[in-house]
Amino acid sequence: MKFFVLVLCVVAAMADPEWHTLDAHEVEQVQTTWKAVSHDESAILYAVFKAHPDIQAKFSQFAGKDLESIKDTAAFATHAGRIIGFFGEYVALLGSSGNQAAIKTLLHDLGVFHKTRGITKAQFTEFRATMTDYLKGHNNWNADISHSWDDAFDKAFSVIFEVLES
Ligand code: HEM
């Protein structure tokens, strides 16, 4: 049986040798810790804008506006829901190994969408840093969880970065 599982894993890996998502343990950790923040969309986007005004400046609706006065508006909540909600989609899709192609397409399209708006790899990396800090602050963090999230971001960004400029 073990040998059969091993063969299956090797075959699955050969099907797409260049890219695959997380292992089951990582998926479990990412999904559990995501749950703790999944309803904090506006708070997360607020933290991102606060730490990185250059990101806020890319949003035509919010550029140049006082963050404190926009953070509780309906428009802010709508944007936050779309952007942070995307992560919910990614995290949910990670749960099934049959979703590799769907995940890759989703990430590729996200990269194309942002490239057309002049968003850079460096800005995605800024975004990642704040999101990781937020997750850290709202979970019982440890090195193992940290490693799982690093892998989740590395895998996602490896696809998005194929498209973006540095
Ligand atoms: C992992 C990080 C990110 C994710 C998951 C993400 C996700 C999204 C999603 C799902 C949308 C909505 C797309 C649509 O309406 O079809 C969006 C829009 C947008 N994103 Fe991102 N984004 C990320 C990082 C960034 C960064 C770093 C910037 C800027 C520096 C940025 C700027 C924008 C802008 C300007 C829009 C268009 C907003 C509008 O409708 O006016 N995003 N993003």
Structure description:
The chain has 166 residues and is mostly helical. It has one domain (22-160): Globins (Globin-like, Orthogonal Bundle). Helices cover 70% and strands 0% of the residues. It is built from nine helices and no strands. Helix 7 packs across helix 9 (143-160) and helix 8 (121-137) runs antiparallel to helix 9 (143-160). The longest helix has 20 residues, at 74-93. The radius of gyration is 17 Å and the shape is globular. The chain starts with a helix and ends in a 6-residue tail after the last helix. The model has no long low-confidence stretch (mean pLDDT 89). The structure holds protoporphyrin IX containing FE (HEM). Protoporphyrin IX containing FE binds at residues 55, 58-61, 82-83, 86-87, 110, 113-114, 117, 119, 123-124, 127.
Key terms for this structure?
166 residues, mainly alpha, Globin-like, 9 helices, 70% helix, 0% strand, globular, binds protoporphyrin IX containing FE
Helix/strand layout:
Blueprint: H1 2-15, H2 24-35, H3 41-51, H4 53-56, H5 67-70, H6 74-93, H7 100-115, H8 121-137, H9 143-160
Bound molecules: protoporphyrin IX containing FE.
Short description:
The chain has 166 residues and is mainly alpha-helical.
Structural category = mainly alpha
CATH topology: Globin-like
Listing every helix as H and every strand as E from the N terminus to the C terminus, the arrangement reads HHHHHHHHH
- Compute the average pLDDT: 89
Q: What is the CATH architecture assignment? A: Orthogonal Bundle
Main beta-sheet strand count, sense and barrel state:
none
Helix content: 55-70%
Based on CA atoms alone, the radius of gyration comes out at 17 Å
Number of β-strand runs: 0
Hetero groups: protoporphyrin IX containing FE
- Poorly predicted sequence stretches spanning 5 or more consecutive residues: none
